[in-house]
Protein: NUDIX domain-containing protein
Organism: Limnovirga soli
Amino acid sequence: MTKIDIISDAALKNGIRQFLETAPDIYMAGVSVDTVIFGFHHDKLKVLLLRFGNTPYFVLPGGYIKKEEDLDDAALRILQERTELQNIYLEQFYTSGNISRSNEKVAVELAFKMIGTIPNSNWFGQRFVSVCYYALVDDTKVNPVTEAFFTEVKWFDINKLPRVLYDHDNIIQKALKRLQADLDEKLAAFNLLGETFTMLELQKLYESVYQKKLVRTNFQRKMLSLGVLERLEKQYNGKSHKAPYLYRFAQTV
Amino acid sequence: MTKIDIISDAALKNGIRQFLETAPDIYMAGVSVDTVIFGFHHDKLKVLLLRFGNTPYFVLPGGYIKKEEDLDDAALRILQERTELQNIYLEQFYTSGNISRSNEKVAVELAFKMIGTIPNSNWFGQRFVSVCYYALVDDTKVNPVTEAFFTEVKWFDINKLPRVLYDHDNIIQKALKRLQADLDEKLAAFNLLGETFTMLELQKLYESVYQKKLVRTNFQRKMLSLGVLERLEKQYNGKSHKAPYLYRFAQTV
DNA sequence: ATCTATTGTATCAAAATGATACAATAATGC
DNA sequence: GCATTATTGTATCATTTTGATACAATAGAT
């Protein structure tokens, strides 16, 4: 569900002010977490992005690490805050730490402009090394939540991304590359689908991840040979052709 | 060459004192870099480790990131400081950031004991998130260099590692797993060998990385089919059997 | 009843992999 | 010298995997 959630200007400014006052006491300085949340709907691979304030720019869902919190726990917490999901498939794939993370200064200036004053905390101005995770979610179960400086939560087609801040475009591409590598090896695909699915849906998912067409009959043969699919009753979908079987992912049958 | 370099107690204490005085001004707090340096000799895969002070514990070569330095540049600098090599094959593979990075407190206590006093800087006591890289080097060209708190630089067989501090054992195993994945895909193996090598040497390298025996004839067929090996003159090695060819790695012939 | 689009399965060729055989070579021992 | 031994380079065959195509079954549209 491409739920869109817009918050008011006043609430936005207030949220930022509050964050800046408490952040240095709560979080590690210098290290952040960014997550590339993948979803799949309408046969397309999607990424969840946040609109940065009232600007036309988007960013990856991210956050900071509490001073007494494990890195992986931080990633999970940030993800849960944003999607309200439990049991999320999460993989760390890259850490971004170049000084010039593209247009970072633009972002900081925008942040300042948004709250209409120079904050006494220099939190955003400091250098961050960002540890990046990707997550695979069943988008039908996601309930996107906005917070602090973000005015909108939106799914974007991986091939139709908006303008993003920092080096987040680079991070998204690296996430996709890693997902491609993990899809077969870790049977990761099924985290992007619902409980049941047709073979065609599964194929469209693979095609959208690998960004290329696959041969239907050979794909079907390969998936069935994995031995992890349980075949359920046929799905009569009202289309004018043979009805497909439904499948369920059944690890270690 | 398993060069061993031992420095004096006085020089050691002095090095630590000096480091602690200047570190907070020079380096980012909270973020460190660790490198798993792989080498290959006597048909074994090796890892370069540093002896921590006068203790029996070893650690990975690591360091900190200068305030105005890119993350990748920091990894390269740390590696060059330790090996005096240029053009090193380097891959970032993991970032370790759990609060309880195993026996960290032991290490800190040891560090304090070594310099015989509580340092005014709490540098070592702070929490670090460590970005980990692995490097592939031709060990015949490495000139291991000791520094600061380390009293010895030594190559260890991947299967005969000493006791290591922090979570460095975990990091080494993760590095090996990643190397296994990269070996074929990125033709990474040749960075571990000298300019020329025999097919058997190459096979022993693959076997030591994958930790399993390979069938000689099929391995040879596969390597030759890659199209990246240039066959040179035979190597008369004085052994009582047919002399093998030498090969050179020739990318994009 | 026929047409159309899609699904499930079968089949054949081509490529990759696994297993084995064997001739060539270079020192060793007689 | 000459057979012996260990290793190397290549060939060959069977098996498995992959790519490409054919075709019957189905379910609604006409």
